[in-house]
Amino acid sequence: MNIQQEKILNGGITLTIDDQEVTVPPGTTILSAAGALGTVIPTICYHDHLTAYGICRLCVVEVEQARVLQPACVAEAREGMTVHTRNTRVERSRRTILEMLDSAVNLEEAPEIQAQLDDYGANRERFENGERRSLPIIDDNPMFLRDYSQCVLCWRCVQVCADDAQYTYAINFSGRGFETSIDTFFEQSLPESTCVFCGQCVDVCPTGALKPKREWLLEQGQTPDEIMQMTRMERRRRKT
Amino acid sequence: MSFDLPTPPELDLDPLVARLNPYAPSGRTALLPALHAAQELYGYLPEPVAAEVGRRLGVALADVYGVIDFYAMFYKEPVGKQIVRVCGDPPCAQAGGGEVLEALSKHLGVQAGEVTTDGEWTLERAPCLGRCEHAPAVMIDDLPLAQATSDQPQALLSAEWEQVTSRVDGDLRALTRNCGNGAPTTIEAYEAGGGYAGLRKAVSEMAPADVVEEIKASGLVGRGGAAFPPGVKWEGAASAPGELKYVINNADESEPGTFKDRVLLEDDPHSSLEGMIIAGYATGAEKGYIYIRGEYRNAENILGVAIEEAKRQGVLGAKILGSDFGFEIEIRRGAGAYICGEETALFESIEGKRGFPRIKPPFPTTHGLFGKPTVVNNVETLANVPLIIRDGSQTFRQVGTEQSPGTKLFCLSGDVARPGLYEVPFGVPLRHLLDDLAGGVVGGELQGILFGGAAGAFATQEHLDVKLTFEDLSEAGLPLGSGVVMIFNESRDMRQVLSGLAHFFADESCGKCYPCQLGTQRQYEILLEMANGHVLSGDVDKLTDVGWTMVDASLCGLGQTAATAVLSAIETWPALFSENGAHGATSND
To answer: Do A92 and A172 fall within a single domain?
Structure first.
């Protein structure tokens, strides 16, 4: 069966991505369609198993005839669409987003974003005079630490805590704009909140913002035995 | 905060329990109304109060907190018994708003954002209060004051309420026929002037599809800023599957320099109400919402009365004018968030959430409020509807141009002899509006005009002959936006103006998408430094990259336009951005 026949049979959509034609089922995003061609479009907030909200905009691509760049993670492939995944216009947006993010957030423990910064030739001193989101580490439970100075606001933790997985709703956003952060109700500690310590938020965090406490203590130079002592004590204390 | 008010130990939740009764059954959609009600009881929203609201409405506590912290008019810390807000946007700043804020700050002994030690006053610097024709604007709680002065702060704080008459003029008074009289138009007066004749004609003589056709045939273009034809929206919502549909009157007017919708709502509340009811009939919606910004309490009260009048006259409610068509209208008050004027953020807000814009598509006409087909129109757009239906689209088209039929409201503010609201037929030149109607520039020669709003672009002397139509303005690179014409004379420091606009966007960005969340902040930081006289060689490049990234990659219209004024200024006054450039330079070299 040739592509045209397959298309008729499956109601497929044919589009052109970086001069290559590809046929995909209806409802396929540009990100997946590009993936079928082996073309990688960079993302930060996107996660295969979570609702895509198109927040980081790193995946923006140029779609001919469209007024502005389109987020590949949520924009669907359309018949006859012509997509450019990496031209100067796209690069300017990606590079500037990365430069601004790097100037606001501690990305030391985000190797994927580090690679993107290199790939797009980001100038890491460009916005060095800008305000950084420097926040104290929150150590309020024996399971994990929260260091929001490393938070890129990808929303994944809020999503898994809510309707995308756990239905626990322990965390949401506070502030708005540049001051946005992730918070519990009136900044109460996690043990006081509805958190069930399922750990899914820690799993999906793309930076070091949410980190298992043991991992952190190891980094601080504690031995496994010392860590065992410490966390056991902490848990016992919480119980009483 | 200048001191810590102790949380009252006797915080009594009993009154709240009763107060929440009407809201509890509605659940999350009642969150903003319930928080407003709770805040009226306690002055602010302390933790136990917020928790009670969450429990009664069935909303997760972290979500309640997220909502409280998103909206500028919800307070999680104690505030003074009265809140005095001084407008900080360009027209008010030019008229001495900064001096008024300073005088109040000195008089009360607090900085903006703080509470006085006696707990009587909170002082705030507010984003545009929508009273630019009475600059500088001040509000004491819900009471608006016009032309505030800095010489007698005590008198300002004890001012009595008085009706401020809108300043309305123009070549043609169609939309503003009942405006500028110093009092809201009653339903009797509105009907005596031909009001509700459009609705009467629609329900008695026309099928819903004919009404949609008539609006399409009129060529009416949306007046909220995006310039989308409402007829196309109506058709989309009318043909969308589903029984439940909504009409929304977007009265969240918050664009700096814009006050047209406030004047229409305060002076002639029935015109956009009638437009909504006709939209309901045409699209098959039975419920409408008016989403009005939290600062417009006066307009909200007037609308509340108008809705009661309309029900009494049988033009609203069940079986309107004896037909089978029924329609109800609910007013929803915003809580200090410019972003909620964006239609999908507005839906989120009515649904009881933070005002985060949604990804489009899907579009509101099929997936809008509560996921149902929804028509969202601006107040001015809806005010045109009764006239089009009553007189017919051909009559409507006799004014204006082929592509821009009808009249347009322009909000003139800043350095102009007669700031105010002006109604003109589409097609008159900008010069006519500025010189003939508003009396020309004052305080020196014209330096520039911010056209369209904070999200607009700058016009100069050479644009004065541009005709005011969608097509001519678009060709001249000027967005019509929300009809803002903000005038700056040659003495104004444009770096200060740009820094002020950038402050507005940094303040109002919702924080959802990276380009706007980070870009509005970086843009503001660079422009603030410039305004303070520190210009670095790479600044223009940075502003250009940040600006185009916001234009190109932001999720919604706020981010996409948060840099247009800055990018336009870079083109218009390059010297402004050079290390040795003069601040108030009019030169183009």
So the answer is: no
Q: B340 contacts in A (CB within 8 Å)?
A: none
Q: Would you say residue A32 lies in a domain?
A: yes
Q: Which residue in chain A has the smallest CA separation from B336?
A: A176
* DSSP tally for chain B: helices H, then strands E: 24, 14
Contact B277, B199 (CB under 8 A): yes
Query: B542 and B477: one domain?
Result: no
* Residue (of B346, B372, B367) closest to B357 by Cα position: B346
- Model confidence over A120-135: pLDDT tens digits? 999 999 999 999 999 9
Q: What are phi and psi of B184, to 5 degrees?
A: -65, 145
Q: Report CB contact under 8 Å: A131, B64.
A: no
How far is B171 from B119, CA to CA, in rounded Å? 50
What's B251's domain CATH number?
Answer: 3.40.50.11540
If asked whether residues A165 and A219 sit together in one domain, one would say yes
Whether the pLDDT of residue B586 is over 50: the answer is: no
Number of domains in chain A: 3
Tell how far CA B65 is from the center of its chain: 25
Q: Does the beta carbon of B226 lie under 8 angstroms from any beta carbon of chain A?
A: no
A12 and A57 both lie in a single domain: yes
CA distances from B559 to B9, B455, B515 (A): 44, 9, 7
Q: Do A153 and B63 touch (CB under 8 A)?
A: no
Both A220 and A232 in one domain: the answer is: yes
How is B377-421 classified by DSSP, letter by letter? EEHHHHHHHHHHHHH-HHHHHTSB-SSSBSEEEEEEEESBSS-EE
The pLDDT tens digits for B434-471 are 999 999 999 999 999 999 999 999 999 999 999 999 99
Looking at residue A123, its amino acid is: N
- What CATH number does the domain containing B110 carry? 3.40.30.10
Q: Please give the residue range of the domain that contains residue A194.
A: 144-239
Helix (H, G, I), strand (E, B), or coil: what is residue B376? strand
| Position A137 in a domain | no
Please give the average per-residue pLDDT across B101-107, as a whole number. Answer: 96
Structural contact between residues B150 and B103, judged by C-beta atoms closer than 8 angstroms: yes
Contact B44/A at CB under 8 A: no
Could you give the CA distance from residue A100 to residue B548 in angstroms, rounded to a whole number?
13
Tens of pLDDT, residue by residue over B25-37, are 999 999 999 999 9
Q: How confident is the model at residue A231 (pLDDT cuts 50, 70, 90)?
A: confident
- In which domain, by residue range, is B132 found? 82-157
Both A24 and A11 in one domain: the answer is yes
Which residues of chain B make contact with A55, given a CB cutoff of 8 A? 512-514, 555
Euclidean distance between CA atoms B319 and B331, whole angstroms: 21
Distance CA B185, CA B187 (A): 7
Closest chain B residue to the Cα of A76, Cα to Cα: B361
The CATH number of residue A231's host domain is: 3.30.70.20
Has residue A138 been placed in a domain?
no
Answer yes or no: do B106 and B144 share one domain: yes
Q: Is B349 on the interface with A (CB under 8 A)?
A: no
Which residues of chain A does B555 touch, with a Cβ-Cβ cutoff of 8 Å?
Answer: 54-55, 57, 71
The CATH number linked to A40 is 3.10.20.740
Question: Facing residues of B412 across strands?
Answer: B420, B485
The residue type found at B136 is P
Among A86, A105, A123, the domain boundary falls at A86
- Judged against a pLDDT cut of 90, whether residue B540 lies above it is answered with yes
Is residue A108 a part of any domain in this protein? yes
With beta carbons under 8 A apart, name residues in chain A contacting B474: none
